[in-house]
Each structure stands twice: as structure tokens, then as C-alpha cells.
Design brief:
Helices cover 65% and strands 10% of the residues. It is mostly helical and 79 residues long. It has a two-stranded antiparallel sheet with strand order 1-2. 25% of the residues are buried.
Length: 79
């Protein structure tokens, strides 16, 4: 999935929230940054191994080691 510069910044902020354990803020930032396609992006992140989504309604989201590496990569882009 190709993201533009602003979308990369939103993704970086969302994943940093997840890294800090703030799942609600992660969801808020995903919605604000990506609108209706946020769930498609989340599915892509899950398939890529960057996050794990669990729970009946996907309410338990965790950043993986691969996701932490993505946060670091996006940090240079977002700066």
C-alpha cells in the first residue's frame, strides 16, 4: 500500500500511540489520518506482521517487533 507523506506521518503517530499502549488513541489517529480506509490499512499492517489484532471486535491491538522497526523507519520520513 502506497502512502503519501502526510499519511506516513499519521501512521507514525498512530503506531507510536500503540507502542505506548494507547489503543484508543491509535484507533483515533488511524481514523483521522485515513478515514474509511483505516481498517484496510490495519489489515495490511496485520498481514505484514507489524501489528497483532485480537478480540471479538479487534479491540486488542499490539505492536510487534516488526512494527517497532516500522515506527523507527517512519520516524525518519515523518521528520
Amino acid at each position: 500500500m502506497k502512502l503519501d507523506q502526510i499519511q506516513k506521518q499519521w501512521l507514525h503517530e498512530a503506531l507510536r500511540s500503540l507502542e505506548a499502549g494507547c489503543v484508543r488513541t491509535y484507533h483515533d489517529k488511524m481514523w483521522l489520518g485515513f478515514g474509511d480506509i483505516w481498517s484496510q490499512l490495519e489489515s495490511h499492517l496485520c498481514s505484514a506482521g507489524a501489528i497483532q489484532v485480537r478480540g471479538r471486535h479487534g479491540e486488542h491491538v499490539a505492536l510487534t517487533d516488526r512494527g517497532a522497526m516500522l515506527v523507527r523507519e517512519l520516524q525518519t520520513v515523518a521528520a
